[in-house]
Amino acid sequence: MSTEQNILNAVVIASNPGQDRALQNEAIEFLNTVRAGATETWPIALKLFVGDDSASRTKQNVHVRLFALQVLDELLDNRQEELVNAGRTQETYVTLQSTLGAYITEEYVSGSAEAHAPFIRNKFSHTLALLFLCTYPDQWPTFFTSISPLLHASPGSPSPALNPHVTTFFLRLLLEISGEIHDQTIKSARSFVASRHARDTSIRDAIRAKDAVGVNAEVLRIIEEAVTLLEAVRAGGAPLSESLGQTQLVELVELATRAFASYVPWVDINLTVTPATINLLFKLLSDPAVPIRMATSGALLRIIQKGLKEPSDKLQLFRVLSLGQVLEMLEQKTRITGSKDETDDEEVSYRESLGKLTSGLGLELIKLCDEQSGPPPAVLTGAEELLQQLLPIMLRFLADDYDDISSSVFPMLSQIFVVYKRAKKNSPQTHLTAPKRNFLMQTLEILLQKMRWNPDDDPDELDEDDRAAFETLRSDLRLFLDSISAIDEELVASAIKTLAMNTLTRADDSVGWADAELSVYLVYLYGEFQKGDRSKGRAAFVTPPEEIVKDKRKTANWESYPLTPHGEMLDALMQSRISAYPHNAVAIQYFETVGRYGDFFKVRKQYVGGVLTTLIDARGIHHPKESVRRRVFYIFYKFIKDCKLEIPIEHVTTIIDSMRDILVVRAELPEPESSEQDLLNEALGSAGFFDSQLYLFESVGTLVSLLGKEPEKQAAVLESVTNPLLSSLQQSIQTPINGPQDILPILQAHHVIRALGSVAKGFPEASQSTDQGSVPAWILVLKQVAEAIIFSLERMNQHRAIRDASRFAFARIIASTGSNITQYIPMLMNHLIRQSQPVELVDFLSFLSFTIHKLQNEIFNVLDELVSPLSTHIFELLARPVEGTDDRLQHNDTKKAYLDFVTHIMNDRMHAVFVSERNKEQLPNLVQSIASIAEDLSDPSSSRIALTFLAKSTVAFAQAPDAPGASAPSVQLDVVPGYQAFIYERLVPLAFGIPASPSFNIKDGQSLSATMEIGVLLKQIYQARGQEAIKYLAEVYLPSTNWPPNLAAEFVTKLAELDSKQFRKYFADVVRSSGAS
Predict the structure, then answer these.
(1) Total tally of structural domains belonging to the chain
(2) pLDDT per residue over 856-901, tens digit each?
(3) What's the whole-model pTM score?
(4) What residues make up the domain containing 695?
(5) CA–CA separation, 293 and 253 (whole Å)
(6) In DSSP terms, which residues pair with 563 in a beta bridge?
């Protein structure tokens, strides 16, 4: 079978979605091979595209022809060097020129221009543009002049009218060529290649020198002729042909205008800006067809953005165009007054394009006004005058109801603020002139109103994209408020407060929901514009006397101090009835605000009860809409956490009682989409309602903890929360699991265990909540919870979900109960590790590190049994071959978690576990393995932690009684025989060997961090061994590595005299200097 036939067959298979996947992949691989071999396969591709005649092209599979163009594109765009090396450049290009030239004549001049497959026209124009780039000007100097006669060639027509097919093709070709040789968006999307850059520059120069005049004349002639024909048709005249009707003529004028705009930036401005072109463009700017107006607006934008050497020439261009006057007239003319449902989207897009033109002109004028570039005084004055004329127009676009129109002038507004802030920095006393302040006030009023929701919209009914678009707009507007605040902070604060207070003080039925929501949002936003101490803690909301601020913060009566402006706003918010406003958006913003400013309620405690009421009723955590409930769960948790000391104790049980109906755990499985789907993993991996519900359980724990003065009641209330959960857990354990499909009991048990852990988390840390006397009753309740979890783990520990949940819960129970829970740790560790998978090791080690830190010597015996077998297991895993990216990530995560674990043992002064009777034989292997990790520069993060461990080990295992480190009160001596030799034979060479490695680069941040840790290691060696280490380095090691005597003497002196922080910096300097030399 021929290659041609193979291509035909492969394209059919590859483009058929119902085809066998393996066969389809084989076909795609074959086509990729054909494309990659374009220097050999292009003749076949050319034949498949062109065919024998128009009829054969029509019959040919369009996917085949598109693939053929892909092969030609590959040849012309990426395989030129191969053609040159093969010596076939000339003949290849000649063949392509002649064949494709004949095709254009037949298909575009005389034919239907691929009417059966119009998308091929666009693709072919790109291919011909690539051929142009390969052959112009040397091999195809007549490229443009050979196309020009065809623009008016129409078979059978005696008049030289426009040929619409050739004309459209010519204009698309110009767009493709401009895009390839100048468009910065296209260029930035591909890697920079110096030869391509040089080629593009050469072609632009050649066109400017040879063909720009002719091309520009043809484009303008096309526009003028098409406009004349369009006006005649609009006046009732008959179109010249079916292909030159009103619709086609509008498309032709638009396309020609875009083609004109495409080369404006890189041809002589004297060609594109003449009295004739200006008149033509302004005429098009008022054309009835919106596409023509938009294209013209784009062309004018290109003209004003064109770079000119002399600022005076640029200013003269702006004066000639008089765009300020034109834009003022067009802004008024294009204002949209009807409802959005009745408005033409094209008119909105056109007004947006005018906004972009305004912004573009403004940006260019701002550049001319930049005093840092030193413009001539006349240019500066003239540009400022034009800019002042433009500002009111910009503000009207900014105030537009349509957000896309409003945001079209954001770039100009942003740059204005940059200039204003620079002026403030240079002239802080005189920068804010009256006109500037007036402009800022107008802008600020518009920005605040733009932050308002459209009253006709309902955020609950909008789709995610529309809601996200508005939130993004608000975020952008907030940044502009930040900029104004940086220029005049008081102006912004005053405007926000005034607008918010005006609404809050009349929060009745006359206030629309959008205004109500905005007022609350502004209270929420106000805090972001407060700087320094005014933004922190209680001082953000009241003004205490100066002596209180400094010395008596804890004992002061904060409720007696006058409110700050922000405090007054929150006070008005609390006194208003806005929390009862019957609209979700208002309620949510209210909750977001009270959740954000918990410190306010520490200075005005009388409002806490009211806020709690709104949080727990149908406006908050009992809201009928789940999405609202889930968000308020978090805000409720945050408010309880921040204001727990302000909550009246007598209200605690009432609050908890009101929550009981939503403290019920109901595990839910996702709807299955296929029989292979792992529903349990999917349910665990996606954040659902239960994940938000956990905030409630932690909040309940916090509330119960407030009942400490009534221990029996406290325990009873806690049991009333935990007992239903324990019953649910018991039921899940007892439910038979007959196969992989019976996963709901597993998920339910997982959720309940996590809920119990979250309740425990609500209690204070153990050191804050317990003393050495009798065990509080609530701890006894949590011990029952711990026992139930242990029992559940024993029954269901074959399921990873239960092991994960148990770690989660015990971490929180340990944090709250401390040593009271120690008795359960051996059983817990046994059950956790018995069936753990390698992927769980990271979480297990992290949990173990946490447990060590919290319980320390209380779990020494557990750790003593665990550390050696665990270390052996870890190093066996790390010794396995690493295959693939995921495997590498798991490998590194496990290694890092293990190093964190052993370093935690050192930090918590439990290193005696390494030298116990059970583990001391393992210590040499352990430290050798960790030393090897320290030397592995492919994982700098693990290397750094390994160095930290080794540094701590020197003092822990080799502390000489007379060395400097022995005097530290925290040092516990566990001297290990032979560790002294390990320091000198292994650690010292390691410390100097790592920076000497060819792959070590101290300029890299992680390498610098490792260098600092090596400095600490060397300092710790000195701390452990004292003068012995100094003598070894000065007389043995450094001379053996050819250190100059004077440098070695300086080094050991610094090691002895500098503290750790100073020495590691010195060591980094030594490494830098050695690398430089």
Answers:
(1) 3
(2) 888 899 999 999 999 998 999 899 898 888 889 999 999 999 999 9
(3) 0.84
(4) 648-669+686-836
(5) 10
(6) 542
